[in-house]
Specification:
The chain is an all-alpha fold. It is 71% helix and 0% strand. The chain has nine helices and no strands. α2 runs antiparallel to α8, α4 crosses α8 and α8 packs antiparallel against α9.
Length: 142
């Protein structure tokens, strides 16, 4: 079951709620509960993030790869994605395994970045590119 608060936080309401649940589920939890984890959505989300961030930078007036790439790389690094995830306050919704919880992985840059990538992938899968871009603009534009 999806907590509706996470959809409000993300700015997107899923047609298929299970995809959001999967995007929030890390491997430790899935191994303990025999369910799908975030990995398939994380992979596509990584690519979607690159494309959306590139388009956003072009809309801000960056013209060349030399201008776009360094700034995009900064935003898509684990630290940059984790900062955005913290701004959205997604931490309480991430499903972690018992060991991950004990080691406070839910607040790690790595877990937050991977989760944000997976959420982006799930939104893309559920709503398509244009919807994903509209949602992500709100995440990354201050």
């Amino acid at each position: 079951m999806v907590n509706p608060d996470i959809e409000d936080i993300l700015g997107y309401h899923f047609k298929n709620k299970e995809w959001l649940v999967q995007a929030l589920t890390h491997t430790g939890y899935s191994n303990e509960h025999f369910c799908k984890d975030f990995s398939e959505f994380s992979t596509i989300g990584d690519v979607v993030l690159k494309l959306v961030l590139t388009e956003l930078l072009m809309e801000k007036g960056h013209q060349s790869g030399g201008e776009i790439t360094p700034e995009r790389v900064e935003q898509e690094k684990k630290e940059g994605l984790a900062k955005t995830a913290r701004k959205l306050s997604i931490e309480p919704f991430i499903k972690l395994g018992k060991g991950q919880i004990k080691q406070n992985h839910g607040d790690s840059d790595h877990v937050l970045a991977e989760t944000l990538e997976a959420i982006a992938g799930a939104i893309y899968h559920d709503g398509g590119f244009d919807k994903t871009k509209d949602i992500m603009k709100k995440w990354f534009i201050d």
